[in-house]
Each structure stands twice: as C-alpha cells, then as structure tokens.
Amino acid sequence: VEKVLKNGCHLIFFPNGTWKKVGSDGKTVTITFFNGDVKQVMPDQTVIYYYADAKTTHTTYSDGLEVLQFSNGQIEKHYPDGKKEITFPDQTIKNLFTDGQEESIFPDGTIVRVQR
What we know:
This protein has strands at 2-4, 10-13, 19-22, 29-32, 38-41, 47-51, 56-60, 66-69, 75-78, 84-87, 93-96, 102-105, 111-114. The protein is mostly beta strands.
C-alpha cells in the first residue's frame, strides 16, 4: 500500500510489516523493518543503519568512512584506507594501522605501540 501525504512524502507499507518513507525531497529515505531495524539514506548518500537487537548504529559516509556505535559506548571508525580507530567505553583509544602496527592511548596518557 502506498500513501502520498500532502507535504509530498510517500509512505509505502509492505505485507511483512516493513514500511518505507520517502521524503518530499525524494532523496531522504527511511525504511523501518519488521524486526525493528531502521535504515536511513540521507540526501548526501550517507547511510545510517540501526540494528535493533544489537542496539548498534552503523553509519557509512559517502567518502567511505564507516562508524559503528555500540550500546556499551564503544565506537569504531573504519577509514577507507583500511585504518581502524576504536574508542572503548573507558575512553582508551586503539589505532590499528594497515601495516600491522597498533597504538593504544590510555586515559592516563600512557601510549603503547606494537610494531609488526
């Protein structure tokens, strides 16, 4: 079933309970899945996916950067060049480099580097 609202938004309802909203701009799309997951596509092509069961948000930017935000406060950034940066709930930051090196920066300022 499709409904067109006065403001130009389109709502599309699927038999399995999933529904899709297309904004009046035609570029903003939100899909709410039957299992509670939500996918948003923004006008700049940023994609935000919320996994309801895991309470995790995965954002993919148009430049290739991916950011995962977990329910425990952990944040992971996956860069297009392969580098990863993980911020743990205690604010420890771990950088994983493409050449195999690792760097951990602890809240007290201690830095530990592991060479390949």
